[in-house]
């Protein structure tokens, strides 16, 4: 079962507006390597209990500690790419 991070006063995936800078906490449901335009890209689906979005680290094939089931805090700007809500190259911190 995935841990949820929906708390009063905190940013949530469902409540965050597009193009807004956010600080989100959640659990990574999936992590995949999916090249974009010939450049490696590590993609992860972040779930916080209110919804999910895709995190993309461009130019990365692997990041130590970024695995399915890991709790993480990310900071960045939400955008829409190919119809999906995404954050590119966020700052991140692994949570206990």
Can you tell me about this structure?
It contains no helices and 7 strands. With 96 residues, it is an all-beta fold. A 7-stranded mixed β-sheet has the order 5-6-3-2-1-4-7, with no helix packed on it. The model has no long low-confidence stretch (mean pLDDT 92).
Keywords for this entry:
seven-stranded mixed sheet, 0% helix, 96 residues, mainly beta
Give a concise summary.
Helices cover 0% and strands 48% of the residues. The protein is mainly beta and 96 residues long. 20% of the residues are buried.
- Please estimate the helix content: under 10%
Task: Choose one word for the global shape.
Answer: globular
The Rg value, from CA coordinates, equals 12 Å
Mean pLDDT: 92
Main-sheet strand order equals 5-6-3-2-1-4-7
Query: Which structural class do the helices and strands define?
Result: mainly beta
Low-confidence stretches: none
In what range is the share of β-strand residues? over 45%
Amino-to-carboxy terminus distance: 16 Å
- The total strand number stands at 7
The arrangement of helices and strands along the chain is: EEEEEEE
How large is the count of helical segments? 0
Main beta-sheet strand count, sense and barrel state: 7 strands, mixed
Question: What are the SSEs and their pairings?
Answer:
Elements lengths: L20 E13 L7 E7 L4 E7 L12 E7 L1 E3 L2 E5 L2 E4 L2
Parallel strand pairs: 3-6
Antiparallel strand pairs: 1-2, 1-4, 2-3, 4-7, 5-6
């Amino acid at each position: 079962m995935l841990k949820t991070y929906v708390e009063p006063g905190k940013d949530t995936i469902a409540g965050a507006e597009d193009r807004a800078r956010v600080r989100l906490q959640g659990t990574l449901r999936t992590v995949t390597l999916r090249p974009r335009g010939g450049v490696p890209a590590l993609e992860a689906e972040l779930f916080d209990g209110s919804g999910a979005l895709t995190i993309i680290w461009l130019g990365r094939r692997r990041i130590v500690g970024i695995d399915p089931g890991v709790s993480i805090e990310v900071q960045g700007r939400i955008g829409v790419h190919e119809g999906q809500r995404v954050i590119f190259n966020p700052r991140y911190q692994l949570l206990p």
